[in-house]
Amino acid sequence: MSWRTASKVKWLELLPGVSEDEPLASRTSFGIGGPADFFVEMSRPQAIEEVIDGCVERGIPYLLLGAGTNLLIADAGVEGLVLRVVNREHQVDGREVRAGAGLKMMRLARIAADAGLRGFEFGIGIPGTVGGAVYQNAGCWGKELREVLVEVEGYMPGAGAKTWSPADLQFGYRTSALREGRLKGGLVIEAKFQLERGDGEAAKALMAKLTKERNETQPIKTKNSGSVFKNPPGDSAGRLVQAAGLKGAREGNAVVSTLHGNFIVNEGGATAVEVRRLIERIQAEVRRRFNLELETEVEMVGRFKG
Length: 306
Prior knowledge:
Elements: H1 6-13, E1 19-23, E2 35-42, H2 45-58, E3 62-65, E4 71-73, E5 78-85, E6 90-93, E7 96-100, H3 105-114, E8 117-118, H4 130-136, E9 139-140, E10 143-144, E11 149-156, E12 160-164, H5 166-169, E13 187-194, E14 196-197, H6 200-217, E15 223-224, H7 237-243, E16 250-251, E17 254-256, E18 264-266, H8 272-290, E19 299-301
Parallel strand pairs: 2-5, 3-5, 4-19
Antiparallel strand pairs: 1-2, 6-7, 7-13, 8-14, 9-10, 11-12, 11-13, 15-18, 16-17, 17-18
């Protein structure tokens, strides 16, 4: 049943800065996806909270968007409102760092190093935002966000402003209570991290080394969503895809990277249907060969059929 009524559409049309049938492909790292029924960018937490509450009160579906990484948007687009969160404020106070949900993790890693802080170097390998990183407990090079996170300032529709501890967020491997648990639908406003004092130049040198290694082993300069699958316990999704002979496998313009098996690349004009078909083909072949289920890390949103 459609959410659309004249009054709901009118309310959305009156939101400051809103656009209708806004293309989303260019707002994702994959470069794939149809339009949002309605789209708005906001940075002020209070305004974001009011809009989310307004959607919930009216039964309008909404999707929170950050940097658009780790995301596959359906070719038919996303219903309701897509709200892109762009609050990028940050503050360093001793060993404590506060960052708005819209700040890029890579930028925050450099800010921490500039302040002579260690422990956030892994952030240079995470292309998404702070909000998205909290949402999925992002990690890189064996380190996860939860290891440095102290608390999150958030908002739950109908329940108001909240402060969540790492325990409240129920972090797991590439997931949290915001993604799959009792906090689903909640919004990250700001995150607070506790780091260690150290040699900022050494942190920058390590980040440069890690970035160089990443560029040599992952298709960084292509349109992709990041890792497509979660690593099974004690194994690597990339290794399994390679062992199944699927590097270079193709569906239309969606191709498994020949550099790293856990990346699907949009060679130009790939559709979400092609990517999904390739994902399902990989899962089926890995299941057949190794009796293992590969779980997706990439999140599929919007009007997918079936």
